[in-house]
Write a structure and sequence with these properties.
seven-stranded mixed β-sheet
């Protein structure tokens, strides 16, 4: 089914081994490259770009009734999922991906497994904080706020003395991290 690194799955595959649908032992790091109504494109981390793994993902996704077509490109690590675009179909597709052990994180090259694990844990924690506050607060706000609180505490307890960690260093870190963590969100809002 693979030709020149491309694969298209249009028919319902026969699932003979139900154990193959269980979550793999090692999570598969992916990044959502594009999400439009009825279409989702993912980039798979280099360590998971084997034809067998990507074909398995395509086969399981094709078994989902909300998915019309799945196309993979092993050399680029791309998975394009065309779904019906109706209410709840994207959530259904994402739930299927999560059941496969796919985690959504930045899949930049050169990350070790430990770095990818920490990164995916932080991304997951950020999503949980965002969900629990109904999108009002995320870690990009809480982290600088915590540093600002530490700098204020240091200022009130020690005054303007220059010690091991002076208040102004913590205040700078709070400001700097806030700016750096919100650069991407400002670019995204201007693009929309």
């Amino acid at each position: 089914m693979l030709t020149n690194g491309y694969s298209t799955s249009n028919k319902m595959p026969e699932i003979t081994d139900k154990a193959s649908l269980k979550t793999p032992a090692k999570p598969i790091s992916t990044k959502v490259v594009s999400s439009t109504p009825g279409r989702l494109r993912l980039r798979v981390a280099h360590s998971h770009r084997q034809p067998e793994k990507m074909q398995h993902i395509a086969d399981v996704l094709s078994a989902n009734s909300h998915i019309n077509k799945v196309k993979t490109n092993v050399s680029h690590g791309s998975i394009v999922i065309n779904h019906d675009g109706e209410d709840g179909s994207l959530e259904n597709v994402l739930a299927t991906l999560k059941d496969l052990g796919i985690i959504f994180a930045d899949v930049t090259e050169g990350n070790t497994e430990a770095a990818a694990g920490v990164s995916s844990a932080v991304v997951d924690l950020n999503q949980r904080v965002k969900q629990s506050t109904h999108g009002a607060i995320d870690l990009r706000f809480l982290f600088p706020l915590g540093l600002a609180g530490l700098s204020l505490r240091q200022l009130l307890n020690k005054g303007l003395q220059i010690e091991t960690i002076p208040w102004y260093v913590l205040a700078w870190y709070a400001f700097d991290s806030f700016i750096k963590l919100h650069v991407n969100s400002q670019k995204q809002s201007t693009n929309e």
